[in-house]
From TrEMBL:
This is Glycosyltransferase family 4 protein. It holds the Pfam family Glycos_transf_4. It is a multi-pass membrane protein. Mg(2+) binds at residues 151, 205. It is found in: Cell membrane.
Length: 339
């Protein structure tokens, strides 16, 4: 075994121990997420624990890049550091959305300058076509959209950490980057020890926004000649986060609601309102993701006809998820069923 494989092990240990230390430190400093009418938790809990796995990942991937085992560049790390910094400050001071968005856009600009835009539609043929002039807007939509959707979906214990674990496995097995994938999985596992229900600490924006940005950027660096294919794979690895977030935004728009206002109408939130525990919701989504993951591994890194099976499977599984939520709402009779 190469000496570089010490890196993922170290990432996992730093994430595990660092998150545990932060839970005590933040509690002593009073940096707590207090429950309110929109919360999915009932007791004050420290937030900002995502700093430990994110810093562990930052240092681990930086070491791997220095050793020549990844294609990540200094400009990427500069952009990622911007997102981490604004997330950390936001967890402490509750920055305005305009300030956060300005920093996120600035970070995305650095990545686009570094890598260029995604030039092809990341969907199977015959939809797979050159974006042409639309390439830059769609690239920014992907980078900023994934960052924010991942942040929005970090709302119950163990959810974002489990999703990160799937990404790590997919990066290693499908995108062909075992070092990066192992580091992501190790960081996620170390954090999940403290974040599984009932959570001792929450990820906070410093964790969820930073991980969302990392996952959005990776397709541009891991396979520079296959960016569209890599984005398709990443979208499938993040499918239940991206689909739930997008579906909820569209449903709220159709009802004339202000989508920038806080709410509790994501599918995972509706399940907890209907009486399911955090652990039950996370395990349900994990089982659905496992089924999609199996088809994705079979399809591989391509946008040929096999990818259509992946896309249809993803839509079907999300339909099952939605139907399950509606059924639970009706059976529990806690809220009116929402179509």
């Amino acid at each position: 075994m190469s000496v570089e494989w010490i890196i993922p092990f170290a990432v996992g240990i730093v994430s595990l121990l660092g998150t545990g230390w932060l839970a005590h430190f933040l509690r002593r400093r009073g940096m707590m997420d207090n429950p309110n009418e929109r919360s999915s938790h009932k007791i004050p809990t420290p937030r900002g624990g995502g700093l430990a796995p994110v810093c562990a990942l930052f240092l681990g991937l930086g070491a791997a890049s220095t050793a020549g085992t990844t294609n990540l560049t200094p400009m990427f790390f500069a952009a990622w550091a911007m997102v981490i910094a604004v997330g950390l400050i936001d967890d402490k001071l509750d920055l305005s959305a305009k300030i956060r968005m300005a920093v996120h856009v600035g970070a995305a600009v650095l990545v686009v300058i570094n890598c260029g835009p995604m030039n092809f539609i990341p969907l199977p043929a015959p939809i797979y076509r050159d974006f042409q002039w639309f390439a830059y807007p769609m690239t920014f939509l992907w980078l900023i959209g994934v960052l924010n959707l991942y942040n929005f979906l970090d709302g119950i214990d163990g959810f974002a950490g489990t999703q990160a674990l799937w990404v790590g496995l997919g990066v290693a097995l499908i995108l062909g980057q075992p070092m990066i994938g192992a580091c992501i999985a190790a960081a996620a596992l170390g954090f999940l020890v403290h974040n599984w229900h009932p959570a001792k600490i929450f990820m906070g924006d410093v964790g969820s926004a930073s991980l969302g940005f990392l996952f959005a950027c990776l397709p541009f660096y891991l396979r520079p000649t296959m960016v569209a294919e890599s984005i398709f794979v990443m979208a499938m690895l993040l499918w239940f986060f991206l689909a739930d977030g997008t579906f909820t935004i569209l449903r709220r728009l159709s009802k004339g609601e202000k989508i920038w206002q806080a709410h509790r109408s994501h599918l995972y939130q509706r399940l907890t309102i209907a009486g399911r525990s955090h652990g039950q919701v996370v395990l349900l989504v994990a089982m659905l993701q496992a089924a999609l993951f199996a088809v994705l591994v079979w399809s591989g890194l391509s946008l040929d006809t096999h990818a259509w099976l992946v896309a249809v499977t993803a839509l079907g599984l999300f339909g099952i998820y939605w139907a399950w939520v509606v059924r639970e709402e009706k059976s529990q009779d806690t809220v009116p069923a929402k179509a």
